[in-house]
Amino acid sequence: MQVYSSHVVGYKDGFLLMADGDSILYDDGREKGFEEMLDDSDVEDMFNMPYDRQASVPAYLADAGRSRCEQLFKNMYGRSAKEVQKRMEVVDWFGQKIRFSTTNGCADSLRAVAHEIAAHVELLPYMRQSSSFYWRTVREAKRQSAHSYGIAIDICTDYSNYWLWSNPRAKETDRIGYENRIPMSIVEIFERHGFIWGGRWYHYDTMHFEFRPEILLCS
């Protein structure tokens, strides 16, 4: 309610009350395994893991932010690619035009990130070949990617590491090593403006930044 106040307008009898009259169950009361929590997340599941900004290497299965309640996100950002695109605008991004959601101030937050990074010439090479909106499911899963909602940006793949690139046969609960080449100064700038970083996930996705102020508020 604090970070999405224009959409979540109340809470009653275990339900979030949405501005459009919809209601969303906060906690379905089910005990879920790791993968089920990702694929069938309620709102409570989104806060199941802490977003640890201190750890240099994420703890086993610490993936705060990978769980998204689809009913909530579709209510706020759009239930289809067409709906999402109606709520987007172009953000100037280091020579690129990036489409990003205007909902919840996402596009303005990305502009604030760009303004701050622009003052650091040494960080500019990491901003090349960035991408954002793409209505799709998560790789090897049925749930929507955060890119579907226009709230996530992937920065330069030349400097990026992704858990399945390095471990192509790994399953979600397998033990894997950690890799990262993104400077922490970039991460800190994004986090100051409401974005979480996929490099803080055990299932690391170091190019990925996602507007999730509710996760940062609870970290």
Summarize the structure.
23% of the residues lie in helices and 16% in strands. With 219 residues, the protein is of the alpha+beta class.
Helix-strand category: alpha+beta
**Whole-number mean pLDDT:** 96
Give the overall silhouette: globular
User: How large is the radius of gyration?
Assistant: 17 Å
Task: Tally the helices.
Answer: 7
- Low-confidence blocks of residues: none
Taken as a percent bin, the fraction of beta residues is 15-25%
Can you summarize the main beta sheet?
3 strands, antiparallel
Q: Could you give the distance between the termini?
A: 16 Å
H/E element order: EEEHHHEEHEHHEEH
Percent helix, as a range, is 10-25%
User: Number of DSSP strands?
Assistant: 8
Give the neighbour order of strands across the main sheet.
1-2-3
Pick out its properties.
single chain, 3-stranded antiparallel β-sheet, alpha+beta, 7 helices, 8 strands, about 220 residues
Plain-language structure description:
The structure is a single chain. The protein has 219 residues and is of the alpha+beta class. The protein is 23% helix and 16% strand. Strands 1-2-3 form a 3-stranded antiparallel beta sheet, covered by helices on one side. A hairpin with a 2-residue loop joins β1 (8-12) and β2 (15-18). The longest helix has 12 residues, at 106-117. It is globular. The two termini are 16 Å apart. The model has no long low-confidence stretch (mean pLDDT 96).
